[in-house]
Write a structure and sequence with these properties.
The protein has ten helices and ten strands. The chain starts with a strand and ends in a 7-residue tail after the last helix. The chain folds into two domains: 134 residues, NAD(P)-binding Rossmann-like Domain (Rossmann fold), CATH 3.40.50; 112 residues, Dihydrodipicolinate Reductase, domain 2. It is globular. With 270 residues, it is of the alpha/beta class. It has a five-stranded parallel beta sheet, with helices on both faces.
């Protein structure tokens, strides 16, 4: 039996806490929590004490050294600051802020140069296996339509810079239409699924997305249509928001599922 994989967590927000709790409880075989890196050590220490976990609070560099894999659960803006030290150390990093990978292509170069690896879990979307398989052939188009509760889009940079008001709307309002690359830049905390979808398929400039603010929905809703030479398929999902309205509950579960696959005797899915 090989040694347990040492997992570090960068960020203890809604997702980070859920993942830390499960790993500490031993819910994922052959995984152990190596430490955490956070902006607020006092708050983090309170949470760790609450779950009975004595792992250290470390700097990102220390966390990279202590871990085999680091899970990024932090605000999107700091992804590069977290990922770069991990990849320079030749380690693996699981990225939940996938949209920022489109703005930091140097991270892929670092992974290649130092033997590290960037892992993007399925997150709030389904069907990545099918999209990745279709991409081995020829995909003509990938289109995604996202509908979110108003509070899940409030404060997005694209809305602010374009003076798009959504507070108090009574009907669904399309607030964006464009490429996945543009969506990731304008909605860095809201549509990481679009970036991940584009990386699995035909790239961020050919993947198109519409974003709707909808006061009548309570879930984060995504519908994807793929046209390829091997198949035509549609996927839809309605995600229950977590305590952070910008993120679905399934995101943390997706990270845990990805961890489980890494050491499981049977791996289903590509």
């Amino acid at each position: 039996m090989s040694a347990a994989m040492r997992v570090g967590i960068a960020g203890l927000g809604a997702i980070g806490r859920a993942v830390a709790r499960k790993i500490h409880q031993g819910a994922i075989p052959r995984m152990e929590l190596a430490g955490v890196a956070v902006r607020d050590p006092v708050k983090a220490q309170s949470f760790l004490k609450e779950i009975g976990c004595a792992v250290p609070i470390l700097s990102i560099a220390q966390l990279a050294a202590a871990s085999d894999l680091v899970i990024e659960c932090a605000p999107a803006a700091v992804l590069a600051d977290i990922a770069a030290p991990v990849l320079r150390a030749g380690k693996k990093i699981m990225v939940l802020s996938a949209g920022m990978l489109l703005r930091h292509p140097e991270l892929l170069a670092l992974a290649k140069e130092h033997g590290g690896q960037i892992i993007v879990p399925t997150g709030a979307l389904i069907g990545f296996d099918a999209v990745s398989a279709a991409a081995e052939g020829e995909i003509q188009s990938v289109t995604m339509i996202t509908r979110k509760p108003v509070k899940g889009l409030m404060g997005a940079p694209y809305l602010v810079s374009n003076n798009i008001a959504i507070e108090g709307i009574t009907e669904a309002k399309r607030v964006f239409s464009g490429s996945a690359r543009e969506a990731a830049a304008g909605f860095p905390e809201n549509v990481n699924v679009a970036a991940a979808l584009s990386l699995a398929g035909i790239g961020p400039d050919r993947t198109t997305i519409e974003i709707w603010a909808d006061p009548h929905v309570t879930r984060n809703m995504h519908r994807v249509v793929v046209e390829a030479d091997s198949a035509r398929f549609e996927m839809s999902i309605e995600n229950v928001p977590s305590e952070n309205p910008k993120t679905g509950r399934i995101t943390a579960l997706s990270a845990l599922a990805a961890l489980r696959k890494m050491t499981a005797p049977l791996r289903v899915g590509t």
